[in-house]
Amino acid sequence: ETRPMTWKLLLNYLPVNASRRQETLSMKRTSYRHAVDQYWKASDWSADEEAVFRQISVDIPRTCPDHKLFHVKQVQEILQRILFVWALKHPASGYVQGMNDLVSPFVYVFLLEQYEARAEGGLLSRRSVEDAFSEEQLFHAEADSYWCLTALLDTIQDYFTFSQPGIQKRVAYLEDFVHRVDPALGEHLQKENLQFLQFSFRWLNCLLMRELPFELMVRVWDTYLSEPDGFAVFHVYVCAALLARFSDVLREMDFQELVMFLQNLPTKDWTRNDVEMLLSQAFMWRTIFDDKRLSKDLK
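^ thats the sequence. predicted structure below, dont judge the formating
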């Protein structure tokens, strides 16, 4: 299984020089432990910090609800600590709903790295997760997830600052692009008075984590991490490809049907082949239509 190491390298969490990796891991994990001691274990949280903790605690049970791994108490506590520490260390944005979705692939991949065993339907069972890991292994997966989440969020900082300008720009670009590559669909959505913001905000804010099966999204993230500006730019083309995939059906729907459909896409039974086709379409569009100025604006 090369994914965990590859992700860490692509996010510049680990150096290319293999001889320096263990030292870097040790240093980063120690730094995270100090942050946990400083922020999570503090006995005098302010009212604002208490509010952050409560919001995170509300969102954690909603994280990947169809994946049994994320129902395990230990895993939920890992998510809580990562998000709480990140929020307090980054007060300019703080915690924003949707970040809980973005950390989940890292926790999944790095727990799998610590325990190389798969079970049908996902990673391990509730009982095996609780029994399989030492505290050190759980901490290593947690620390690595924290630093990789930090690296990811650095590439889309304007998604989470005041008024979320990064998302606003991408929604506008997505709408313009759909009108360009599928004018019939774009005109139909416009005729039905469906604003792109009504459905694509979540697609962008949560990077489609709620639209496709979890294991398939992990595969999508392989491509995002490999593509230049994968999360910041390429993701918009994937959103366009996803919308176009259902173009024929969508053009027959009225406003209410469109809203219901786009909030609950019929992708539950999708396979890896469906995702490969989606990524291929997005890659082709980016190659053919990519406007360097617009891509620069989206970065």
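The first helix runs from residue 3 to 10.
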